[in-house]
Amino acid sequence: MSSACNDAVAAFTSDRRACLLSTKAATNATLYCSEPSCVSQLQTLQTALKNNCSVATSDIPMVLGTQISPLFCQSNCVAAFNTMQSSLAKCQQSGVKTAPQCQACAQYKQTVPVLVEACAYNATIPSLLASVATDLSVCDTSVQNQATNSSSPSPIIYWALGSLFVCIIIGVAVFLRLKRKGGTKDLSYYRKHGQKRKVASNRKNFFLDNDVRLDPTMVDFIYDQEQLSQITLKSKGGFGLVYSAYLATSTESIRVALKQILPEKTTDIDQLESFMNEIRMAARLNHPNIVRFIGITWSSLEDLSMMTEYMSRGDLNKFLRHEYKQPSTTFSWTTEHSCNKLGIAGNVIDALVYLHGSNPTAIIHRDLKAKNVLLTENFVAQLTDFGVSRESAEDGDAIMTARVGTSAWIAPEILRGEKYTIQADIYSFGVLLAELDTLQVPYSNPALQPEIEGLSPGQLSNKVAHGKIQPAFTKQVPTAIHSIAKRCMQYKDTRRPTASQIAIEIHSLLLRDGERLSGPFANYQGQKSK
To answer: Which secondary structure element, helix H or strand E, spans residue 294, and what is its range?
Structure first.
């Protein structure tokens, strides 16, 4: 990149950051264009594009989800944009179409070409008009019926006045556009996917309240979809999809995991907000035993994706089931081998120490189990899936329904619908120790635990809720590990140890076993720091 481009892009990046940090950006055209840093970024963008500098698509300014051009803050374009937004909202109001609503539909229909052609708005006319096609059809029928059955000309007058008003705007905009020499390229030139898929009308302008894509703290985590390659679907669950992909950064290509919610759930505002909260939670966490957050990318609300570091060995649940099926295994409670149960337990409890000690409030994972523990190439365990995590309430407790999490790992107080604290995670950690010991899902093997024979899921949950049953361990489990697990799974949450107390005990066991084997503990420490 030339020095001129470096300067131009640097100036644009600086203005862009200042604009995004302002509360006015990306929510209202008039306020956006009254913010000096936002106007300045359009000017520096124009300079960069004229010099044929490379500008990432995700960096191009956006207002309410659509990329905008350097022409956007011209007075006629701001007026057209505001008219389009207000008329769209009124046009799509539910219920029987009234004359004012039909007037709004007409305004919207005739304002769209102004934005696309005269203001270089980065969307196609057909795609914008498609969002009101049904409304326009209803209005056409309504006007025809009223014209036939009534002598009142009011609906036609509304349409005529609306059309006249918008034609004046179009005329002024086109005149100003023609006066410009040259101009800039339409922003669709810089984006492969210029058309957004249509979303439900109740999600106005494709953005939600407190939308994560407009969050100033996410500025440095936004990536263009064109930076992704070799996208492969890895798994599909009840909530979402997980893909593997390669992300091209300015210095290297890294493998990432992409998480999206299921397409059919993108019409559910609660699900979308939950996913955005998960993204915010992941972005704020930074610990060697928590999966690293990379960023977000999207072309529309429907394909919003969270990117995290790719874990080559998958989740602990699959690893344990694989080891269980082997005739013999070296995976044990001793640190003789780099992949061992004690090391993984130490990694997980370190993650909980970090979460429970977070400031200003502790974070409760709420869904700790082997399936939500991922393994790096060197078998370092990292905690993931913060979709149901929450910060503890000011009074230190909260209520969670039993549907969150999985019943085998859920603390009794949660199953009873009572208040809970960070100690609910400690109970789940005790269950995880049973998973590590037996290599099996808790309460899944009657041969190991005869009392579960014939129990329905409901009956099992009831026994757990009232402290009548706990996961089984093998006869080979070390006494110290069994003792820790039993204390973690105490019926009364106040009698359970803290994450810090457990971490001290487990690291002491690691140290003693390392001394016994003359050095492997040093290897464990080295793995953890990677």
So the answer is: strand 293-297
Structure tokens at 467: 């402290």
User: For the CA atoms of 393, 397, 399, 404, what is the dihedral angle to 10 degrees?
Assistant: 80
Is the distance from CB of 28 to CB of 21 less than 8 angstroms? no
Catalytic annotation, residues: 367
- At the top level of CATH, the class of 314-393+401-517 is mainly alpha
CB distance 110 to 171 below 8 Å: no
- Dig out the tokens for 22 from the structure: 């302002």
CA-closest candidate to residue 310, choices 405, 242, 366 = 242
Contact 471, 490 (CB under 8 A): no
Count CB neighbours of 16 within 10 A.
Answer: 23
Return the CATH fold of 219-309: Phosphorylase Kinase; domain 1 (3.30.200)
Beta strands (DSSP E) in 359-454 are: 363-364, 373-375, 381-383, 390-391, 398-399, 419-420
Sorted by where each begins, the domain ranges of the chain are 3-141, 219-309, 314-393+401-517
Q: Which long-range contacts (CB under 8 A, 24 or more apart) does 45-52 make?
A: 45/12, 45/70, 46/70, 46/184, 47/8, 47/11, 47/12, 48/5, 48/8, 48/9, 48/12, 49/184, 49/185, 50/184, 51/2, 51/4, 51/5, 51/8, 52/5
Q: Which residue has the tokens 């040093």?
A: 522
Closest to 183 measured CA to CA, from 283, 77, 101: 77
Strand 253-261 and strand 240-248: the pairing is: antiparallel
Is the CB of residue 499 less than 8 Å from the CB of residue 353?
Answer: yes
Cα 410 to Cα 419: distance, rounded to the nearest angstrom = 13
pLDDT tens-digit series, residues 329-363: 899 999 888 899 999 999 999 999 999 997 678 89
Q: What tens digit of pLDDT does each residue of 119-172 get?
A: 777 667 777 777 778 777 888 776 555 545 544 455 555 555 555 555 555 554
- Which residues partner with 406 through β-bridges? none
Alpha carbon distance 51, 5 (integer Å): 7
| Model pTM above 0.85 | no
Scan for tokens 């609300």, then name that residue. Answer: 301
Largest CA distance in the chain: 100
Cis omega before residue 471 (within 30°)?
no
Report the alpha-carbon distance of residue 25 to residue 35 in Å, rounded.
8
Contacts of 344 (CB under 8 A, 6+ apart): 316, 373, 375, 379, 381, 436
